[in-house]
């Protein structure tokens, strides 16, 4: 069924000057990157000679210098003539304000009064009692009694930090178990402990020998003249071969 169609597919021939083929070639030339940069590649192959004293280079340098000098002095040229000169620094409000701010920010001037007055100490008569009270307050102070752990300021995965943490853990475990070191090596018998006594009581409750008394363990004496005993004896004599 498809044999004729398969034979026709291999024998189709399109003329190269058809409008569709020409349009496809024109589109390929338009979108070709190689053709797009062909002129630039050929120009690069020819080379160029650009000397430092060439006219375009010198013109560009002069333009750059002119623009740089203009930008540098632009603010100055705008503000030129806006200021009225002052005879001294005290006559200029901005300079006085800046000096005042600098004096306020100066740490030496800020602490001058404190440094002058801290050497003028008047010790009262009860200085010893005050010192004793301070020492007593230090002893009973909860802040000094408790020493909180410091905050980590380094990376937690550093080797020295990991080693320090292990050392802290070992030291903490040793201090925690220090009160039990005197028990190390001391022998102890389990006789009389709670668990042993409990096990013994449970064994006594479950012991069948103590709970029930076997009949063969009971001591008794039978009556010799009982009717059943006499009848048994007679029967035994009758059945005896002798």
Plain-language structure description:
- By secondary structure, the chain is an all-alpha fold.
- Among the domains are: 17-47, no CATH class; 49-82; 87-116.
- Helices cover 60% and strands 0% of the residues.
- The protein is built from 15 helices and no strands.
- It comes from Trogon melanurus (Black-tailed trogon).
- InterPro entries: NEBU/NEBL (IPR055297), Nebulin-like (IPR013998), Nebulin_repeat (IPR000900).
Q: What percentage of amino acids are in beta strands?
A: under 5%
Calculate Rg over CA atoms.
59 Å
Return the average pLDDT rounded to an integer: 79
What is the total tally of β strands? 0
Overall geometry comes to flat
Given helix and strand content, the structural type is mainly alpha
Amino- and carboxy-terminal Cα gap:
128 Å
- Work out the helix count: 15
Offer a concise description of the structure.
GO terms for molecular function: actin filament binding. Keywords: Actin-binding, Repeat. The protein is mainly alpha-helical.
